């Protein structure tokens, strides 16, 4: 799908009727790092979430599940620096965070989406929230999206926020979001934290359906390191401030909304993959000519997950045999003798494999193509019409460095 | 299973009636590196093989499959430096290698197991074999096992050979082998090259059954980097020189043989994992208390495959949350609230998680335990009686370095 909607500023508060803030509450030792984000809608919202499928789940996810079971929510609270996972009193802490949001914003605790990200299995107390929630609530403003984006960062090196505008039912609507995620990211789950807001009016069931569909093609096609986090979720709040007739089922408005949601989420995937822990390059795999979408996805994910290929891409080494190898163990049924592969970047296109066998190529030209910071591995299976794309990054010394001593 | 049989010298030629050699034939540029191994039995052998399940398979595997279809073989030829995979004329080359073995040793081409390992998709010619096979055959000797072990090394830093002796039917038998494998190693396949020989007399069907069973618990529980190679296989030749009554079905002799085969293969797994590309540490995961063996294996493999845990082990960081995370996404059904985890090494035992939640531990003591070069992550699921072990290694700067520019 193309980028058909215009980008706008504002990220998670681009849509009308949302305010955000991000402050240092003391979960992190570094006083210059914001560690808690708050996002609040002026009015109740339709809400939808997708959660990690890891059996070990952070306590905040259980609390959020309960709070959005009725399809509605109005606020989001998220801290970084501690995942509140594998803690005996985790649910109590997460509920306490929601209660503090209620006390300082008036949003009922049962309408709060709560999330935590950071180290797993480290004791967490309510104290920083008790001391800091008043200031966090007081800082809420329509321009606070960037502060919130900063507050949820862990090993991320850039704040991640995008938004688009679109027309629904003759009214201008906006949809934007922030996300964090740099490590412990792997497909088949809602694999990071992403908070989206929109002023479109859309029924909760439609919102959930749109989110489920888009997550399959975006965040579930993103892998930094093959590790599926315990805490991750994607949530979207829709407050209806755009004034369009509420979307309650299939139709042109639903399609427009789903397309805008895809555009925002796909862009966040690119940004997250490129900012993967230690990454120097965005690595995408575009698969075309697959017999079905399932096969296309298996192949695309397998290629961007290969440690060997990721290391080769770091070294700008056109070791395409590793692409074939990853296709072969992807689990997709396919005819190896039909596979064509080429490396693509701003610097050019290098075909390296035709009909499953190597072809001669200019090593110096390949080096130039692979020295760019955005590399696509283009795989043509020549077996059908389905296609897919997956996002990843290279494997570098810095990934090892960052994760060799993350806690200290 | 314990190490009940005495270790003996000789590796792949420890068993009576086998000769081996390893020479530089010119597949590799470095003239001081042996690049081709030859192993020959004095008489025809029962033969069994397991192959990679990657759909992209090296041409030698197709030729070997055909040659051992009758359950018999007598020689093994294996080169390193070129995988002979994704080459248009690959089968022709592999058949040519077998024909040259026949010409210079008298072993029929149809009784030759052929293997190649190295870069995928690089053109390969018969020329080095045409020029060098006579010398390789002339070098065959009962003490040539180490030369053969060296000749199949790629990024391996140590030659890998072990052997045991045992008693069958009142006769002393021996079983030994060599293996190579340092990268592109991942469970659920015959995931490297391993050539085993024995002088036990055993029928081909029993030999295949024993190999299939042992591979499931050994090489399929070994992962260096999550990449499943295109070329890998395990083969065993049994020439009957020990003089025992041929093993043709279940019984004490079959059990003894299978146990010896397990001991040799498990030891080779440890050696390979510890010599994983860039590895500084052997990382094992021992799972006990699982509801069934399938669950135990899923958990053990998931833990040793986690890039995040592997990096933490490199940094001697007791980041046990990553263990819980990997257990949670393993695919095994389990009760998270029953899980106990401890780190174990020569330096001590550090319990870090009880009943799914963190417990306080001494960070300095944990650092000492994790600074050893063999670390076991011990996971007690408290849900049954099944157990499993998996072998892996840490993720280091050198893994990235080795694979960032492997071809040049």
Overview features:
homodimer; globular; alpha+beta; Ubiquitin-like (UB roll); six-stranded mixed sheet; 408 residues; eight-stranded mixed sheet; L-amino peptidase D-ALA esterase/amidase
Please give a structural write-up.
The structure is a homodimer of 408-residue chains. Chain A has 408 residues and is α+β, with helices and mostly antiparallel strands. Chain A has two domains: 11-274, L-amino peptidase D-ALA esterase/amidase (4-Layer Sandwich), CATH 3.60.70; 282-404, Ubiquitin-like (UB roll) (Roll). The first copy, chain A, has helices at residues 59-67, 90-105, 127-138, 145-151, 204-217, 252-274, 293-305, 307-314, 321-328, 363-370, 397-404, and strands spanning 18-23, 36-51, 72-80, 112-117, 160-168, 171-180, 193-198, 233-238, 282-290, 340-345, 348-354, 357-358, 374-380, 386-393. In chain A, strands 1, 2, 3, 4, 5, 6, 7 and 8 form an eight-stranded mixed β-sheet that branches. A six-stranded mixed β-sheet of chain A has the order 12-11-10-13-9-14. In chain A, a hairpin with a 2-residue loop joins strand 10 (340-345) and strand 11 (348-354). The longest helix of chain A has 23 residues, at 252-274. Chain A is globular, with a radius of gyration of 21 Å. The model of chain A is unreliable at 187-191 (pLDDT under 50).
């Amino acid at each position: 799908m193309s980028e058909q909607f215009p980008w706008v500023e504002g990220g998670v508060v681009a849509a009308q009727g949302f305010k955000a803030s991000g402050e240092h509450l003391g979960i992190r030792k570094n006083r210059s790092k914001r560690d808690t984000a708050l996002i609040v809608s002026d009015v109740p919202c339709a809400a939808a979430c997708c959660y990690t499928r890891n059996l070990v789940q952070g306590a905040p996810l259980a609390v959020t599940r309960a709070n959005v079971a009725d399809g509605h929510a109005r606020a989001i609270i998220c801290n970084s620096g501690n995942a509140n996972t594998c803690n005996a009193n985790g649910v109590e802490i997460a509920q306490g965070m929601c209660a503090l949001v209620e006390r300082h914003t008036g949003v009922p605790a049962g309408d709060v989406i709560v999330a935590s990200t950071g180290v797993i299995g480290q004791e967490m107390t309510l104290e920083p929230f008790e001391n800091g929630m008043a200031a966090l609530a007081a800082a809420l403003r329509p321009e606070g999206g960037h502060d919130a984006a900063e507050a949820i960062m862990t090993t991320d090196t850039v704040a991640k926020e995008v938004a688009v505008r679109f027309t629904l039912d003759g009214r201008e609507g906006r949809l934007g979001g922030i996300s964090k995620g740099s490590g412990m990211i792997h497909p088949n789950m809602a694999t990071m934290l992403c908070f989206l807001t929109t002023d479109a009016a859309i029924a909760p069931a439609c919102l959930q359906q749109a989110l489920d569909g888009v997550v399959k093609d975006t965040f579930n096609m993103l892998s930094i390191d093959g590790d599926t986090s315990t805490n991750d979720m994607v949530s979207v709040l829709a407050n209806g401030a755009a004034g369009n007739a509420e979307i309650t089922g299939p139709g042109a408005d639903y399609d427009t909304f789903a397309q805008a949601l895809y555009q925002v989420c796909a862009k966040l995937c690119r940004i997250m993959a490129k900012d993967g822990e230690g990454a120097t390059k965005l690595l995408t795999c575009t698969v075309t000519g697959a017999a079905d979408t399932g096969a296309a996805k298996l192949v695309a994910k397998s290629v961007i997950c290969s440690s060997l290929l990721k290391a080769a891409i770091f070294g700008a080494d056109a070791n395409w045999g590793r692409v074939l190898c990853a296709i072969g163990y992807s689990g997709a049924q396919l005819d190896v003798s039909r596979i064509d592969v080429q490396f693509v970047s701003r610097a050019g296109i290098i075909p390296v494999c035709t009909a499953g066998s190597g072809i001669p190529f200019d090593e110096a030209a390949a080096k130039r193509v692979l020295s760019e910071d955005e590399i696509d591995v283009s795989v043509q299976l020549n077996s059908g019409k389905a296609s897919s794309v997956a996002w990843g990054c290279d494997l570098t010394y810095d990934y090892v460095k960052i994760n060799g001593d993350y806690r200290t």
